[in-house]
């Protein structure tokens, strides 16, 4: 009753009933007017509230009849004038929208029944509908206490378009990432293939140079032997000078080939340093003695400042580096004095090679470490190939030792290498002393049997010619180490064996071991080979053999023969 006529009117009615006083018609009219005013106020209040909402709003009572709506609701569905009115069944509006094609349903009646059922049960619901004009609505329905239903219609068209655009961008981004990933994977694959091919090519180059060096060094060795013999036989000074130039040219070709092989090996990445602890003093003494003769020949004063410390690195590789630096200083610097010394720098030693020569311009200091690069003035002073410093940088990169160059024009050059000082408790490598076998023979050179074995006949002829010129006339030769066809041959008379390592069906080491076994004694023997691999060096050492590398330097060979065949 309060909901219909208001609280005040309801109170008056109940007071009249209790007092048995009749209610006048005028009072009833006032009550109805009051109730109408309240209802109108509430409706206007509700309408005012929903009009200020930006979304479409519709309100139905528990009888599922339209009670209120806002202008946005009318606008969204474009309802014709007069369709929206209080008391209009909501079913009419849903059917109108379906029949006008504003909301598409596969089964209109089923869709309407389902929608009314939600409202009747007071079930909250949220769903989306796309209108015929493309507008996307989000519909949210919620029950009203005491019956009825309020539904909001939110235009989410722009949100969905943005969402679709983001999804499109995301998809395109994923496709681009996927494509880029495929490209990177393909690029990485090509890089790996290229790296593998480069490594394979590098190894092939190394093997080729090693094989080619053997084949090239063979004729160089023969030419060296013949030129040495010619030099000793000619008496005319002009012919001697001509022969000397031939020997120098042969030596230059030999050095170039060896440098190329060294660079190829260093670039292959297959060289691992053998780090030991050794005396820097002992290494510097050897190098100082070795280069003093060359320095004196060029009227250069070589001063060495020694150090008693022990260092830790690969001794052989460091020696090669210092050899190249000293050789460069003597041959290229045009210096009158060279300092070869050591200075301590904390836990490290700096080994210096300092000259007082023409120096190196700043713009050339990076270039000189590249292959086949020489400063212009060098070409007028001495022949060279420009590989010495390239080898230095490669070795130091393997050893992980820094190299510093300080120089300027006409101010000399200072090359320094920083080497770690060894711990005092570390085991040190002692200088190796070569023990030469002693012979008790007192025969003259002409009676001493020397065996020469090489698979190249020209080398045998050159060796025989050189030995004969030195007074060794009792010489037997072979290309394979087999002397069975020689009736005068006996192992008892052999004083020395000179053998190439690579023979047709065996190695020089195997032939020497066979001859020694037959003689039942350790015959002095020398392996002469162009093969400079560590395996060959190790095999010769294990069998107590000496080794000379082709092309043979006649002075080295003669010195070794004099020591092995003491009279």
Automatic annotation (TrEMBL):
Gene3D superfamilies: 1.10.287.130, 3.40.50.2300, Histidine kinase-like ATPase, C-terminal domain, PAS domain. Residues 42-79 form the PAS domain. Residues 211-423 form the Histidine kinase domain. InterPro entries: CheY-like_superfamily, HATPase_C_sf, HATPase_dom, His_kinase_dom, HisK_dim/P_dom, HisK_dim/P_sf, PAS, PAS-like_dom_sf. Residues 449-565 form the Response regulatory domain. Transmembrane segments: none annotated. Residues 156-204 form a coiled coil. GO terms for molecular function: histidine phosphotransfer kinase activity; phosphorelay sensor kinase activity. CDD domains: HATPase, HisKA. The modification 4-aspartylphosphate is found at residue 500. Its EC number is 2.7.13.3. The keyword Transferase applies. It catalyses: ATP + protein L-histidine = ADP + protein N-phospho-L-histidine. It comes from the Bacteria. Keywords: Coiled coil, Kinase, Phosphoprotein, Transferase. SMART domains: HATPase_c, HisKA, REC. GO terms for cellular component: plasma membrane. PANTHER family: HISTIDINE KINASE, TWO-COMPONENT HISTIDINE PROTEIN KINASE. This is histidine kinase.
